[in-house]
Amino acid sequence: MFKLKKTVIAVMAALAFICFTGNWVVAADKFRIAWSHYVGWEPWELALHKGILDKWAQKYDIKIRLDLVNDYIESINLYTGGTYHGCVMTNMDALTIPAVGGVDSTALIIGDFSNGNDGIVMKNGDSVANLKGRKIMLVELSVSHYLLARALEKNGLAERDVSLINTSDADIAAVFASDSNGVAVTWNPPLMQCRNMKNANLIFDSGSIPGEIIDMMVVRTDVPDALKKALTGAWYETMSIMSGKNKAAKEAIRYMAQFSGATEAEFKAQLRTTAMFYKAADASSFAKSDNLKKTMEYVRKFCFDHGLYGDADSKDFVGILFPDNTVAGDKTNIRLRFDASFMQMAADGML
Q1: Are strands 183-187 and 118-123 parallel, antiparallel or unpaired?
Q2: How far apart are CA 124 and CA 199, in angstroms?
């Protein structure tokens, strides 16, 4: 999964819906949604393949076009710029790209959190303490960078104790393989490749910070409820299929693995390190929990400290609204909203 972070140019938000005049953008009943490859987002392709997405769109008398965008960061930039009404992304990226860029966005569906899909692998060492003084390869300002910062913090170290080498996710496994003293922070599938190499030790992963790297479907706050209901309904119908123990579930896993370019065994291995919220009630409870507030406090502090808020003078620059109507940050500049209501409707059978 490509989780690269870039500082977004705020002017992109001002261009929303101006540069894109195709019918799919301007028509009131037609909506475009972007997604990119990641084990927790492959179910969107399954929903399209099985006709589930179209069925729910028809129920609410709308049309939904689902586009696979192979470049993750580009998908979010296109969403921020106005091409898409919704897009899959992490909690950190939702905050620092569309939200900081001025786009009022809602985390509609919390699909999962990384529970081992992101990790730190090293040679010639077997603990976070052994990172002191080492050179570390990672995609800077990504969730890998966030994971490293949390690992160091939890072990009494700081970023000044290590040297960072910005390395693309496409190259990191190969570079790690050629470095006898290498350290890499990455996500699956490169993480799986690195940890399977000779003399490599997984010393920290996202399972040690459960619930902090969250994968979501994000939509523009002002899209109609019809779209929000259709997406939510389609997602949880798909969840019910892939989480089953029957032939349909096995076929679903096989199809998603093949579409993602992984073997079935690799796809299942990645699912094991992904805490999927198969039930809408569980996702709704997670969104309403105090733990989410704690996580977003970690995230917004990291983002501000690393310059991802641009020239803002405080981490309070952007407001984050939670389901209980409390706000972290500026109440007059709310740009990221966690809304549990549609997940709760799905849980209650009210969609």
Answers
A1: antiparallel
A2: 7
